[in-house]
Amino acid sequence: MVTASASGKVILLGEHSVVYGRPAIAAPLSGLRARVTLTPHSGPLHIQAPAVGIDAPLPDLPPDHPLARIVLLTAEHYQLPLPRAVLRIESDIPVASGLGSGAAVSTAIVRALVAWYNVRPDPARVSALVYEVEKIHHGTPSGIDNTVIAYEQPVYFVRGRPPERFSPRIPLPLIIADSGIPSPTREVVGDLRRRWEADPSRYEGLFDRIAAEVEAARRAIEEGDLPELGKRMGRNHELLREIGVSSAALDRLVEAARGAGALGAKLSGAGWGGNVIALVEPPQAGEVERALREAGAREVWRTDVGTGVSETGRVADHG
Ligand code: PMV
Fold first, then answer.
1. Who's near 245: CB < 8 A, 6+ residues apart?
2. How far is CA 114 from the centre of its chain?
3. Any catalytic annotation for residue 145?
4. Which pLDDT tens digit goes with each residue over 78-90?
């Protein structure tokens, strides 16, 4: 039997503008994972994904199904026969919430298939394979999700350039709150693209302003200046509102976190729904968590970004 896993991810700053060539910063969520096991069996490769109701031999899935696509791409790229095995997928990462569940599942599948043949995968290659499947999920993905998940390290990312990996000077204590509302990445990205096409100069100007916040945030992360980072996250949220990817529910969560003492808060990922992230001083964390729940968060996680050993803990629901 072979097992492999891949982490979720969080975009700290720069979502959407990253599709238009501006920088973004993202980090893995090492404690929230997708897991794949391959168990020998007598027939051809069989896929089990109980969370989405799939229990079928590979040829029964359409070839452009994301699960079939990543399996076939991996086999083709590494020139490997399909194993006679059951490939089972399980994941702690909520679907369609901006935490990278699709890219994590694809990455775990690549890792499991190559591990079956004792091949050591190169993160750049894994990232490139997963990117092909992200196109099915996203339409025009920037590549940030597959990059941060394949490397499993914080990255400063500009589309088309090799990712710059970095470690924050001090861990970044984050609270992640799921609005419980799906974030339809493909639609949000497509909707923004139509508005950009109608008025490119307005949106290019807003993307430049987001880029300036990302650059300032990067310096703050390198210097360990949490209040400055929080300020930049807050400004990034305001700019995301201006480009039309926030929602009343997300704004309410951001306000609640700020009101409870967070250093900064913003939506993370494609928006309309999905998650809000809040940067906190550890003594404020309990208060911020409570406020986020009262403002409607379905689930709340706590994580320290950047220590490399951080576990993402699900915060017990006292409500
Ligand atoms: O998968 P999500 O919801 O985290 O969105 C990805 C981030 C976007 O910048 C909105 C799209 C992209 O491809 O970078």
1. 15, 16, 188, 192, 267, 270, 271, 272
2. 23
3. yes
4. 999 999 999 999 9
Residue 70 Cβ contacting ligand 1 at under 6 Å: no
**Tokens coding 205:** 């100007």
End-to-end CA distance of the chain: 41
Given a cut of 50, whether residue 308 has pLDDT beyond it is: no
Residue 37's DSSP bridge partners are: 3, 88
Spacing, Cα 211 to ligand 1 middle (Å): 15
Q: What's the gap in Å between 252 CA and the centre of ligand 1?
A: 21
Residue 311 — very low, low, confident or very high, per pLDDT cuts 50/70/90? very low
In this predicted structure, what is the pLDDT of residue 149?
A: 96
How far, CA to CA in Å, does 195 sit from each of 23, 25, 39, 67, 202?
21, 24, 48, 32, 10
Handedness of CA 262, 96, 171, 285 (dihedral sign): positive
Round the average pLDDT of the chain to a whole number and report it: 93
- By CB neighbour count within 10 A (0-12 exposed, 13-18 middle, 19+ buried), where does 54 fall? middle
11 lines ligand 1 (CB under 6 A): yes
Residue 307's pLDDT band, with cuts at 50, 70 and 90, is low
The number of the ligand 1 atom at minimal distance from the alpha carbon of 17 is 9
